[in-house]
Amino acid sequence: MSTLSHTADHAHHGDQNHDHPPFLAHHFDTPEQQYASSKLGMWVFLGTELLMFGGLFCAYAVYRHNHPEVFEYAHTYLNKWWGAINTVILLVSSFTMAWAVRCSQLGHRTGLCVLLALTLLGGAGFMGIKAIEYSDKWKHHLFPGRANLFNREYTGDHKPDEHHAHGDHPSPAAPAAAAAHATGDNHATGDGHAAAPADPHAGSASHAVLPPASASAAPARALNPVVFVDPHAGASDAAKIVPTSNGPAGLAQGTSPKRGHLTFADLATRDQVRVNTFFSIYFIMTGLHGLHVLVGMGLIAWVLIKSAAGIFGPTYYTPVDLVGLYWHLVDLIWIFLFPLLYLIH
Amino acid sequence: MNMFASILSQSRNTTFWMPEQASTVAGEVDWLFYFILYICYFFFFLIVVLMLGFVIKYRKRPGVPDHAAPAGHSTALEMLWTIPPTLIVLFIAYKGIRGYMDMAVAPPNCYEITVKGQMWSWSFTYPNGATPAAPTPENPNDVAIPELHIWKDQPIRLVLESTDVIHSFYIPAFRLKKDAVPGRFNKFWFQATRASPKDDKGNYIGFPVYCAEYCGTSHSEMLAKVIVHPTREDFELWLADASKWEDKMTYQERGAQLWSMYCRSCHSVDGSANTGPTWKNLYGSKHSFADGSGFPYQSTEGWTADFADENYIRESIYYPQRKIVAGYPAGQMNSFLGQLTEEDVKAITWYMKSISANYTGALPSAPPQAPGGQPAPGEQPQPPPPGDSQ
Amino acid sequence: MSAISTPGQLDLTGTPHAPGSNYLNHTRGFLSWALTLDHKRIGLMYMVFVLSAFFLGGIFAMLLRTELIARGPTLMATKTEAWNLYNHMFSLHGAVMVFLFIIPAVPAILGNFVLPMQLGAKDVAFPRLNLLSFYIYVLGGLFFVYVLLSGVIYAYTGYQMPGGFGLDTGWTFYTPYSSSKSMSGVIPATFGAFILGFSSILTGVNFLASIHTLRPKNMGWFDMPLFLWGLYATSVIQILATPVLAITLLLLIVERWIGVGIFDPNLGGDPVLFQHFFWFYSHPAVYIMILPAMGVISEIIATFSRRHIFGYTFIAYSSLAIALLGFLVWGHHMFTSGQSALANVLFSLITFSVAIPSAIKVFNWVTTMYKGSIHLETPMLYAIGFIWMFSIGGLTGLFLAALSVDIHFQDTYFVVAHFHYVMVGSMLFAFIGGMNYWFPKMFGKMYNEKVAMFAAILLFIGFNLTFFIQFVAGAHGAPRRYAEVPVQFVSHHFWSTIGAYVMGVSLLIILLNWLAALWNGRPAPANPWGSNTLEWQTPSPPPHDNFPTSPVVTDPYDMDRWRFVSDEEGWVLTDEAKAAIAAGTAKVGKAH
User: Fold this and answer.
1) Structure confidence by residue, pLDDT tens digits, C58-82
2) Which of A1, A224, A227 sits opposite B300 (nearest CB)?
3) Pairing state of beta strands B147-151 and B223-229?
């Protein structure tokens, strides 16, 4: 047992002998201690955020492992080009955020404000594209839960072929088509679809790009049962039910037709009822992530206002730093979400 | 008050701690139980005796100054109470795993019975396809307790399924339990070592079976019994008799039996309120539906019902969510498609007719296949074949 | 107090600025409490709400035990009504007790009050976050109040409030019963638990950061009081496990609300996945409940044995070991669910490993009492009761970890008795013991010792009567959550219910005793028990900034620094200790 002599050289004297800067809370001794506390707290909090998403990643892993075909089929309803653009946007905004933190440490107020504003703009751009993607799903009744066409308890009035009677949905068609050409994707493109007859039951109507347009993709419905139609047998135009984006061209097409041209009818019956699970996971994951982006944008706006007032400088930049950490986490989660949801082979 | 004595005086084959042993694994489980129990006694009394002894011996006495020993630390002592307990629990874990593997690995010659759990009853389907009804209780207000019949010294494999929520099939005398999970088949096996005793009237006293996973309102009445016949012959005689109702009872009697197996937890037959509408006077009634519509009801199957008729009742059994009676919540009843045959539905319909003032026609007076029996009066319209491909 | 103004001595009279001013009275008015950032006031506000939740949960317990006192419907006229009431009662009892009482009780009340003071600090690291987590707790609690009210309203008027009425799923919310069959308020209840989770996470983040960064420079990790080790391990679990619960409950909410098909087998989901998610949180949550309780017991045993805690490092490390191993055992809740035999075997093995650090703690506590000078005051009675309860609760865990025996015991009253011995017997005894221990510090008043000891003994008797007999019933196969008592278990349940009434009475006595002490208890000295942790080196109740003068950090279990003077003055530093402080040679460093 040591008998070193110490009086309490530690913290928290009743009377404050040293200079207490305005940003230093009363229960901290030094700005360093406050900064260390804040940073530790933020890291731990980010850990909890990761664990929360970790639960979702577990659910994703379980279902993808158990029903790989469902994921392979359903992911074709997502537009990977919007996803890719969003990835770039978030990466760039992460960069501007990191630069902003550097500016705050150096005391460059103008640079800080401009970079924060750019980051905010990136977040807004991300959410805008997300809104376009969501509205596209909405048009096709691909919402999570019972509002999803594929859900066994779907009771909506919408016929499976109704939505594309309205004609082309504008948003993802162009990038999808362009991309399909650009990458040499040899599957049907938006242009090819638009003019195709819709489905054998509903007669002619202009056809949408995405697979749900096909009548053969009519899902099971508990209360109004629909017999699944083999697309190859019943549909006049087999190509139209091929997903727009697919695996690498030529992948195992001969050996396993399901790899190349996975259609709804190719799925086992027990998998057909699970297609809606993919959309549930997609919406919950991207929705929760989107919520985090919104929160991050709010925080950046708050930091931006304070920056404009000139609060931050080389001695005190903790909020900028912490918000930056948070924004990087949001970015990081998206880096995982994008390939897991959009780039399934 | 005899409340305490009854805990101590268990019946012949039970002990203070454990119920009767009636399966091949029970002895092994009980051995491990008692082994752990004596370990627990040892450590518990060691801790408590030391603790209370220290409290008495070293208690602060008035007027005597504190006399505590200096700070203590002994790595040897720490090792003493770390390593031996570790070895003990490793041994317990090993024995537990061994015992579990005996439960988990079924022998090849099992007799397989399907057990279906639903809120709140069990039903058992034997390899011949029969799902015998539970015996009618003596007191009609009691819940009928279904019976699982097996015979002694035969490995039995149960395949568990559930139509609604998670249940758990628990036979304390066999020391076994397995959950019935909707969407998957769980299996377990056992071999009874003791035939069920008989009571004074010559009826078997079964081993109790409980539902051990909470499943809603009447969870505590989701009971069953295991009847262990002494020989296979005895069992086969019972099965042959129980598999056939057509020569023993009329449609309405069979319907009453089915009601008590599958329906009574939600539908009363005396007009009282429950989870679902009462069956009393249901046949022929013109109630309205939760969506505001009413009779005549045009079904998507192509027929029209002017009142709650055979087609409507059949649809309500096979596709319960299509039309919900006003005042009742949706989503409560599961489809009985594949579980009740068309013949069963017919029997239920006749039973409903028999308890409805709206039906004034004749009822079948004899079992459909009784020797010299007559067909049911007024042959009902043939329902369309099931067209659902879900 | 006499002889307190020599140099180098502690000033125990109050702050230099305003003598007599303390944290309770230095500002007044509703807002000075509602918007306070003072950890002590936040701790007291938690106390009011957590004890209210405990009171509610206790009423539910009394009602459900009454239903089980005999066969047939007891509380209601018909079977269906009685069974429904029982199911609602046990679900609300479980949910309210777990989420609103046991999890926050020790960390949020005692932890909030004591942690900064044991660190010699003025506050926790993030005072605003602390207040926020309190209000999040209140908000989460309001959802449970809503669930309760909706059940009452439905029972009396038949009106169904949005979101369902009451709660009848059990606190475990197993799918698919919770997601598709139950008519009860699953969404408001799970949303409430979801919100409470954030309160728990934020408290964990706060405590963890406080312990890391606010420790005095000369207080190393192994110079901390063991209560802080308990809180630290608890914080780690809260941070790692609670987010998973949050996402699980969120998924359950959307499952029930819009039918996403993740847990509902009817829509292609897997109900057992819910159990995995749920127990990944809820098993570690058991250690959230017990680890801070163990910390309290370590403090009490050392103080009232007047002896340095035995095997300090082993107790500290065993807290961490329990926290980490606790994450690897969740599968033992699913031995009968049909998970693979390999998984069952592994989970069984790892479960046994938790037994070892628990045993180490018990043996170290008992050895601390050896050759001590044991003062049998109320907190010590609770500590002795704790060791009794925890021994039974821990040892019966061996039956449940043994795979083949657990197949028999799963979901029987054996499990109910086991976890009540751990979570009520142990945790509640530690909590009430800790409340009695720190009550003088919190309020500056002493409670009536004789009444408190009588209530402690009565609670001990009532508890053992209630729950020991449930081991016997469970071993015979009595399934839990049964509204109707199977014939052979009637007498077991009868005695269990009688025991529950005894517990109810003793808890009321405890509460009234505290209230009476607030009303007319005699003033408490700064250190009524002679403990050497820092919170006793400031007046009772403490001033707003906790310490009028900086406390001297020494070995927290160096009991010889204090000598008893009188009931009025309590324990004061010995002359040697004063001299050491004055000379700057007060002992610090290794606490073992």
Assistant:
1) 999 999 999 999 998 888 888 888 9
2) A224
3) parallel
Question: Do A144 and A54 contact (CB within 8 A), yes or no?
Answer: no
For chain B, the residues whose C-beta falls within 8 A of a C-beta of chain A are: 71, 300, 319, 321-322, 387-390
- Kindly state the tokens that stand for C321: 């070991």
Strand, helix or coil at C292?
Answer: helix
Who's near B73: CB < 8 A, 6+ residues apart? C310, C311, C312, C313, C592
- Angle at the Cα of C96 (from C92 to C99), degrees rounded to 5? 135
Residue B151: pLDDT band (50, 70, 90) is very high
- pLDDT, average across residues B311-328: 86
This prediction's pTM:
0.82
Mean pLDDT confidence for A232-248? 35
User: Which among A5, A7, A280 is the nearest to C260, CB-wise?
Assistant: A280
The SS3 assignment for B147 reads strand
- C126 neighbourhood in chain A, CB within 8 Å: 37-38, 41
**Residue C559 to residue C413: CA distance in whole angstroms:** 43
Please give, rounded to a whole number of angstroms, the shortest distance from the CA of A230 to a CA of chain C: 22
Structure tokens at B126: 């034997």
Q: At what angle do helices C226-258 and C271-305 cross, to 10 degrees?
A: 160
Q: What is the DSSP string of C317-370?
A: HHHHHHHHHGGG-GGGG-TTTT--HHHHHHHHHHHHHHHHHHHHHHHHHHHHHT
Q: Which residues contact A254 (CB under 8 A, 6 or more apart)?
A: none
User: Is the CB of residue A263 less than 8 Å from the CB of residue A73?
Assistant: yes
Q: Which residue has the higher pLDDT, A9 or B75?
A: B75
CB nearest C201 (choices: A48, A59, A62): A48
Q: Residues B25-29: what's their mean pLDDT?
A: 92
Do residues A193 and A208 lie in contact, with contact meaning Cβ atoms separated by under 8 Å?
yes
The nearest CA of chain B is from the CA of C546 a distance in Å of 29
pLDDT at C468: 94
Helix extents (H) in A140-211: 173-182, 190-194
Q: DSSP code of B177?
A: E
pLDDT, position C567 = 85
Pairing state of beta strands B297-298 and B167-171? unpaired
Secondary-structure breakdown of chain B: helix, strand, coil percentages, each rounded to the nearest 5: 30, 15, 55
> What's the rounded Cα separation, in Å, for the pair C524 and B308?
78
- What local confidence, expressed as pLDDT, does residue C579 receive? 87
Q: Alpha carbon of C294 to those of A200, A204, A312: distances in Å?
A: 71, 74, 44
Q: What ipTM was estimated for this complex?
A: 0.90
Q: Read off the pLDDT of residues B196-217 as tens digits, 9 standing for 90 and up.
A: 988 888 888 889 999 999 998 8
CA pair distance B45, B49, nearest whole angstrom: 6
* Interval C158-178 mean pLDDT: 87
A219 neighbors A77 (Cβ within 8 angstroms): no
pLDDT in tens, C558-591: 888 888 888 888 899 888 888 888 887 776 644 4
